[in-house]
Amino acid sequence: MKIVDMDSLKLAITTLHQEYRVPHVLITSVRLPSPGTEPHLQVFGSTYTSTFEPRIFNVKIPAIDCFFSGTGDMFAALILVRLREAAWKVEGLMGTSSWVSGDEVVEVELPLARATEKVLASMHTVLERTKEKRDEEWEGYRRSSIGKQGDEQRDKLMQSKAAEVRLVRNVGCLRNPEVRFKADRV
What is the domain partition of the chain in residue ranges? Predict the structure, then answer.
């Protein structure tokens, strides 16, 4: 199912909940048309109710003008840890099937929403810092005698290496992220 607007996004989430009984859905790196706004990405999520209805939320984050490799893997690893952490904070939730909150829990209070906020806080900080270092390394390389040779293949390799996500150097923001982007109801 192609997602081109809010209606198609809601349909995709509803289909996953109702037809396939997927309890938690996250759709990352969504760029829906929104003229006049700063470049941003959105993550949409939902945890179904007892009648398989969606409870959709989104978290909007500023786009970072850089290509990063491996962000999907990083997101998946972090969301698993953070969802478990958020579920532990809700009395009795760990004993429920798939950690699905009761129907009284609103979208932005879902453990999945809380987990997404923390994951995006960590990731955005890591990626901002990675881009800063990438830009420094790339500029230094371009000024070097090797960089001035203009070898396209070597330049691409250097750019790729400089943009490697710097996880180990930023472990503090993975452990204790400063949540800057909050979930909103859709």
Answer: 6-185
* pTM passes above 0.85: yes
Q: Pick 142 or 58 by higher pLDDT.
A: 58
Contact 87, 111 (CB under 8 A): yes
Encode 35-71: b = buried (16+ Cβ within 10 Å), e = exposed: eeeeeebbbbbbbbbeeeebbbbbbbbeeeeeebeeb
State the Cα torsion 84-85-89-95 to the nearest 10°. Answer: 20
Residue 2 corresponds to which tokens in the numbers above? Answer: 């192609």
Q: What is the mean pLDDT of the chain?
A: 93
Q: Are 22 and 16 in contact (CB under 8 A)?
A: yes
The pLDDT of 161-169, averaged and rounded, is 85
Instruction: Work out the pLDDT band at 161, boundaries 50, 70, 90.
Output: confident
Q: Quick: pLDDT tens for 51-84.
A: 999 999 999 999 999 988 789 999 999 999 999 9
List, in order, residues 6 or more apart from 57 with CB less than 8 Å away.
Answer: 44, 45, 46, 107, 108, 110, 112, 113, 116, 183, 184, 185, 186
Residue linked to tokens 């939320």: 57
Q: How far apart are CA 96 and CA 101, in angstroms?
A: 8
CATH superfamily of 6-185: Ribokinase (3.40.1190.20)
